Automatic annotation (TrEMBL):
<dbReference type="InterPro" id="IPR050366">
    <property type="entry name" value="BP-dependent_transpt_permease"/>
</dbReference>
<dbReference type="InterPro" id="IPR000515">
    <property type="entry name" value="MetI-like"/>
</dbReference>
<feature type="transmembrane region" description="Helical">
    <location>
        <begin position="155"/>
        <end position="178"/>
    </location>
</feature>
<keyword id="KW-0472">Membrane</keyword>
<dbReference type="Pfam" id="PF00528">
    <property type="entry name" value="BPD_transp_1"/>
</dbReference>
<feature type="transmembrane region" description="Helical">
    <location>
        <begin position="292"/>
        <end position="311"/>
    </location>
</feature>
<dbReference type="Pfam" id="PF12911">
    <property type="entry name" value="OppC_N"/>
</dbReference>
<dbReference type="InterPro" id="IPR035906">
    <property type="entry name" value="MetI-like_sf"/>
</dbReference>
<feature type="transmembrane region" description="Helical">
    <location>
        <begin position="115"/>
        <end position="143"/>
    </location>
</feature>
<keyword id="KW-0812">Transmembrane</keyword>
<feature type="transmembrane region" description="Helical">
    <location>
        <begin position="184"/>
        <end position="204"/>
    </location>
</feature>
<comment type="similarity">
    <text>Belongs to the binding-protein-dependent transport system permease family.</text>
</comment>
<keyword id="KW-1003">Cell membrane</keyword>
<dbReference type="InterPro" id="IPR025966">
    <property type="entry name" value="OppC_N"/>
</dbReference>
<feature type="transmembrane region" description="Helical">
    <location>
        <begin position="52"/>
        <end position="73"/>
    </location>
</feature>
<protein>
    <submittedName>
        <fullName>ABC transporter permease</fullName>
    </submittedName>
</protein>
<feature type="domain" description="ABC transmembrane type-1">
    <location>
        <begin position="113"/>
        <end position="311"/>
    </location>
</feature>
Length: 323
């Protein structure tokens, strides 16, 4: 037999339950000013707890500071030669010793940071910009636009990097005896970007195809929003995460690519100072003077590793499956 809804027993039970609920609510901590976090807010909160991210960020900040203000770390001209000191070992006067032409290796390693970082940053920026634009257009419009742009990107994707760079840089420098520093840096940046943008395009295209199926894009299209507005205001912010991860890892890879091209004699050249050029200058003296190779290679490895570590940490923070 059930009790009436307004029976004294049921009223007492409901009153007691209400009081208990009120006590629980009052005892629970409340955050009145806390705002809901989005993808980037959650990622930043997660990144601050990762030792890998903190270590990589500290190394990168130091490297960027050295690249911006090399004069604070050495007062020696990196191109001053003293053949009497050629291949001298590290000492109190020269922490890293001298190279085969008697140039201070510490000074050259410090000033070489700028060229390597500038090439990596500019090549990454140009690669991501070009690949993102093409990828967004291919992913949003689909159909024949997607087919044409995808097949066009595959032409560059099929080119071997070193072979393509040799062809491009040799063509650029045909008939030029000694190209200027700014000119050769521009050539190396363009070569890396031209051969690398298809990967960024593929990543952005996949993200755009996924975003195009979401309800907010369909609603914007139903409300009469134009294609540029949908792409820039709705799709682009939601497609940036995978491209940001790629760009962080690619920056380190492009710094290594610059060193590879310089080592082969088709990248940066004198009077530019870079880690790749220092490694190239040491190749004939590795057995007799290994410090010529170890110090610039150490700078290069640490920097590339820091960017790769940063990219791994950002990828894990932005991946919902890692939560």
């Amino acid at each position: 037999m059930t009790e009436p809804a307004d029976s004294p027993h049921r009223v007492a039970v409901a009153s007691a339950a209400g009081e208990a609920t009120a006590e629980v609510v009052q005892s629970a901590p409340t955050k009145k000013n806390e705002k809901p976090r989005g993808l980037w807010g959650d990622a930043w909160l997660d990144l601050r707890r990762r030792p890998l991210f903190i270590i990589a960020s500290a190394i990168i900040l130091v490297v960027l500071f050295v690249a911006a203000f090399p004069g604070l770390f050495t007062s020696v001209d990196p191109n001053v030669q003293d053949l009497y000191k050629a291949r001298d070992l590290p000492s109190a006067d020269a922490w890293f010793g001298y190279d085969n032409l008697g140039r201070d290796l510490w000074s050259r390693a410090i000033y070489g940071t700028r060229a390597s970082i500038v090439v990596g940053l500019l090549a990454t920026l140009l690669t991501v910009l070009l690949g993102s634009v093409v990828g967004l257009l291919a992913g949003y419009y689909g159909g024949w636009v997607d087919n044409v742009l995808s097949r066009f990107s595959e032409i560059f994707l099929g080119l071997p990097f070193v072979l393509g760079a040799i062809v491009i840089l040799t063509t650029f420098n045909a008939g030029v005896a000694v190209p200027s520093g700014a000119r050769v840096i521009t050539q190396v940046v363009l070569s890396i970007a031209v051969l690398s943008w298809p990967m960024a395009m593929r990543i952005m295209r996949s993200a755009a195809i996924s975003a195009k199926q979401q309800d907010y894009v369909k609603a914007a299209r139903a409300l009469g929003a134009s294609a540029p507005r949908i792409i820039l205001r709705h799709m682009l912010p939601n497609c940036l995460a995978p491209v940001m991860v790629y760009s962080t890892i690619a920056l380190g890879a492009f710094i290594g690519a610059e060193a590879t091209l310089s080592f082969l004699g088709i990248g940066l050249r004198f009077p530019v100072v870079s880690w790749g050029l220092m490694i190239a200058d040491s190749r004939n003296y590795i057995q007799g003077a290994p410090h010529l190779l170890l110090f610039p290679a150490g700078f290069l490895v640490i920097t590339v590793l820091a960017f790769v570590m940063l990219g791994d940490a950002v990828r894990d923070a932005l991946d919902p499956k890692q939560k």
